[in-house]
């Protein structure tokens, strides 16, 4: 028996094993680096004063509070505030391309409240929203549609026609859908500013918490792409 030969063979095997382990480790590190370098999911909140942060301190608006809550479980999400106070569905359509630049993954579409307050024909509001949805879809941008409701003083026919816009569009285009942005805060003086129309920072917090399951549905849909 040649003990020197056996020792050499064992040394060669040992070195080969070490090299194999090192290769696997480097491969795993490379995969981790690629995962870590993955670009964040970019989501634009396109809407009016309800999301623009009207009457609120900086950082207390809907997009900002939503981003803070999401960060607890999703460190690769960027929420971009594209809310403009006083905006209508026509205004949103007119500024769509520059409000939603390239490399955006999804849009939270919250428009129509000012249309109802101004008595804009529901047919026009619906057409504007539909145009935005189709144009975003053509760019492979997912849409989360946020519903709004007409004030009762507009009359029953107007109210019925306007309120039907959002669920109808959500069904037609199979969108992720949040039925009513002000759910849980409307008519509550403790959660609204003095104008009784815009939520306080606390009211926005209530909206964000109610909105989270729908937001997770959007993120799940994006992950399946």
CATH fold name of the largest domain = Rossmann fold
Give the count of structural domains.
2
Level-1 CATH class name of the largest domain: Alpha Beta
Which ranges are low-confidence, i.e. pLDDT below 50, for 5 or more consecutive residues?
12-36
Task: Return the structural class.
Answer: alpha/beta
Give the full name of the CATH homologous superfamily of the largest domain: SGNH hydrolase
Q: Beta-strand level of the residues, as a percent range?
A: 5-15%
What average pLDDT do the residues reach?
88
Shape: globular
Largest sheet, spatial ordering of strands: 2-1-3-4-5
SSE run: HEHHEHHEHHEHHEH
What is the helical fraction, as a range of percent? 40-55%
* Largest pleated sheet: 5 strands, parallel
Quaternary structure classification = single chain
Rg, nearest Å: 26 Å
Number of helices: 10
Question: Span between N and C termini?
Answer: 63 Å
